[in-house]
Every structure is written in structure tokens, then in C-alpha cells.
Automatic annotation (TrEMBL):
TM helices/strands, residue ranges: none
Protein family per UniProt: Belongs to the UPF0223 family.
Superkingdom, taxonomy of origin: Bacteria
Lineage: Bacteria, Bacillati, Bacillota, Bacilli, Bacillales
Coiled-coil boundaries: none
Protein name: UPF0223 protein SAMN05216232_2907
Length: 90
């Protein structure tokens, strides 16, 4: 990983950890597989920190630009799937 996660300086240390964990799970879903419930739990924490849909889109776009990994397809698949693990094929 040679890029930076999109973060806000006003967030607490715990919020930063939660957001980084969320984006790390997004990354992992492209490279390996992730438990569906882990993604959904991390996304709920992310939404507690970033409740605005427009801000969410901005953070998702910044992360995709930096990493090449799109967050929305992972969250969508986790929400709609009944599978226990999520893997995204690029």
C-alpha cells in the first residue's frame, strides 16, 4: 500500500481507526475475501462518522482515486448478498 486513506483532521483517533478499518476491508475484498458481516459492521461505523451521502461519495471517490478500489460495489454486494464472504473481481 503506497497511498493514503482519505481522512478528516477533525475526527477522533477512534473515528480514524474505524474509517481506516473500513477502507482496509474494501481493499481486502478485492485481494482476498472478507466476511459479509465485517463489511456491514464497518460500514455502519463509517456512516456514524460520515452520515452525509455527498461526503460519503467524496471519500469513496478519493479512496478509489488513490487505491483503484471502488467502495460502493463492495457495500452493495454485502447488503444484497446472502453469502457469508464477499469477494470482488476487478
Amino acid at each position: 500500500m503506497s497511498y493514503h486513506y482519505p481522512l478528516d483532521e477533525s475526527w477522533s483517533k477512534e473515528e480514524i481507526i474505524d474509517v481506516v478499518n473500513f477502507f482496509a476491508l474494501i481493499e481486502q475484498s478485492y485481494e482476498q475475501q472478507v466476511k459479509r458481516e465485517e463489511i456491514l459492521a464497518a460500514y455502519r461505523k463509517f456512516k456514524d462518522i460520515v452520515p452525509s451521502k455527498s461526503e460519503e461519495k467524496t471519500y469513496f471517490a478519493d479512496f478509489e482515486k488513490a487505491s483503484g478500489y471502488a467502495s460502493y460495489p463492495v457495500v452493495k454486494k454485502a447488503r444484497e448478498s446472502e453469502q457469508k464472504t464477499i469477494t470482488i473481481n476487478k
